[in-house]
Every structure is written in structure tokens, then in C-alpha cells.
Design a protein that fits this description.
ten-stranded parallel sheet; binds S-adenosylmethionine; alpha/beta; about 325 residues; 10 strands; binds 6-(5-methyl-2-OXO-imidazolidin-4-yl)-hexanoic acid; 11 helices; binds iron/sulfur cluster; about 15% strand; globular
Amino acid sequence: MTSAREATRPVSAGTIVEWMRRPLLDLVFDAASVHRRHHAPDQLQCSQLLSIKTGGCPEDCGYCSQSAHHKTPVEREPLLAVDAVLDEARRARASGADRFCMGAAWREVKDGPEFERVLEMVKGVKQLGLETCVTLGMLDAAQAQRLRDAGLDYYNHNLDTGRSHYDQVVTTRTYDDRLDTLRAVREAGIHVCSGGILGLGESETARAELIAELANLDPQPESVPINALVKIEGTPLARERDLDWSEIVKTIAAARIAMPKTVIRLSAGRTAMTEEGQALCFLAGANSIFVGDELLTTPNPAPASDAALLSKLGLKPLQRES
Ligand code: SAM
Ligand code: DTB
Ligand code: SF4
């Protein structure tokens, strides 16, 4: 069997399936060894999210509370004011986040006053000494350049799942549209944050395809969020089967071996995990989380419980540079 220590690129989905079928503790041991060669094992990157434009999205992503195609409890709201966003960013900074991520329920960025406002938000958050991240849907090269000039450090745009499963989840844009946006982000000199969601009814192969697709990007993404589906009432995926904790651990371990230098985020879904399950994910190479009470529209573990978990595990939030 292929040893997980021998990751060479391009890596195939078949190889990743072989890794994920290894005895779990062997896989985690190898992933932890790779992790410790490339990262300080006591450091955790902490991002805080804010939904700056909630609901009413024209896309039909089957998991999402914000799609106008599904009847969910989330109401459509206008784009927030710059000052309101900067107040939230100050609070995030005070509670120890090193990066502030602003998300909009847009299909794509459109030039105009709302984009100008988002550029002001990026400038303002950067001036607070936080790393900046936005997730605004598809964008073109000129828009990516304007975000970079405003001080954007990271652009989040997820591939969500493997290519073979993608059209079961989203029909209003293609996998290649997602890859084109990532290319525009990369060419503008912005760090790429791209990952996916586990628990969308995907096969083991589709999950491996996602990790292979990310790992074969050149350069590899600086940041890879691994989300566990947060089931939202009213969405087509609300009744999906529950993920087993071992599936999350395996995927993180495979991502760590395939992308040794990338920062891997144990992203949405931590409220449904035990502390022990999260601890195994950190051992297997996850070194980033979302902090704060809320993700975009759903709850996240309370800051006090995260502080207690980090303390038990001897993990420290990454220190901001400024
Ligand atoms: N509209 C933009 C887009 O789709 O790129 C940005 C916001 S969108 C909410 C950001 C990402 O959050 C999605 O690509 C998806 O991977 C993740 N996400 C959304 N809803 C989720 C859910 N219910 N559970 C887990 N992850 C979710
Ligand atoms: C990512 O990969 N996960 C975040 C962020 N990027 C934008 C979003 C998670 C959303 C979870 C469901 C919600 O709160 O609406
Ligand atoms: Fe819109 Fe993003 Fe939700 Fe898809 S994931 S419906 S693009 S907000």
C-alpha cells in the first residue's frame, strides 16, 4: 500500500482514498509527523467571521441558509455599513482573533457603490492590524486587483466538494467557474483560502477528489477550510445523514499530508463535535478555527468553551504581528 509519507504531486484521488482507508491511528500518526515538520504544533490561527450581507442569494447551493431558492429561517438583509463592520472587527481583535473574514451572500462581485463599500471595509479592518479576508462569490481580475490594493490578504472561495458530486449540490455555477475565480485571486497576489464541506452525501471518492483538486493547485492554497455540513431546516440537505467524527479526522489528515504547508481550518460544524473529536483533528493537522459565537448565520462554540479547550490541549491563538 502507498505510504502516506510519500506524497508526491500531482496526487490522485485514488491515492487519497488509499490513505483514508489506512488504520485511522496510523494515518493520524503520519499526518501529525508531517504537521510537526512544517508548523508549530501549539499554534492555532483564529479567524472571526461576519456576515456583511445576509440572505437572498440567487445561487442554489443545496446546503445554504442564504439561498433564495430555499425557504429557511434566514431573512434577506442589506449590506452593512462600514462603521458597523469596523465595530465588530474591533470586538474580534479584542477577543484574540488574528483575521477578520467578511462574507456576502452574493453570486458574484458587481462593480458599483456596494463594492466600493466593501473596499472601505477591507481598508478599515487592515488598519486595525487584523489580517483581512472576504468571501463575495465570483470575481474577475480587475476586482481582485482592487481588493488587493485595498489591503486584502485572503479571498475565501470554496470548491465545496469533488467534481463528480458538485452538480448534485449546486446547479447555478460550474466547478470551472470556481476555479477561474481562484485563478483571478491568485494572479492578483491575494492568498487563496479554498476548501469544502463534508456531509453533502458525497462518496469517499468525491471527498478524495476535493482534497486532490486543492492539493494539485499550483501553488497550493495557503488556507483550506474543512467544514462539516451545518444542517439548515428548509434546505435540500437538511436530512442528510450525520457525519461520523472519524470521517472528519481522516479528511483533515489526508489534507495535511497532501498539503504540508497549508493552514487547515477545522471550520463549520464544531458545535456538533466533542472536545475529543476536535483534539484528534488538531493532532491530525488542523491548525485554524473560527472563533466567536456565530459563523455566518449559525452558532459556533462559545468563546469561553473554546478558551477552555485550547487550555486543556496546550494550544495558543496565533499572535498578531502588529
Ligand atoms: N456567497 C459566497 C460563496 O458562496 O462563495 C460566499 C459566502 S458562502 C456562505 C461561503 C462558504 O460557506 C460556502 O462556499 C460553503 O462552503 C460554506 N457554507 C455555507 N453554508 C454552509 C453550511 N450550512 N454548512 C457548512 N458550510 C457552509
Ligand atoms: C468557510 O469555509 N466556512 C465559513 C466561511 N468559509 C465563509 C462559512 C461557514 C458557514 C456555516 C453556515 C452558516 O453559518 O451560515
Ligand atoms: Fe449564495 Fe454562497 Fe450561500 Fe451559495 S453558499 S447560496 S453562493 S451565499
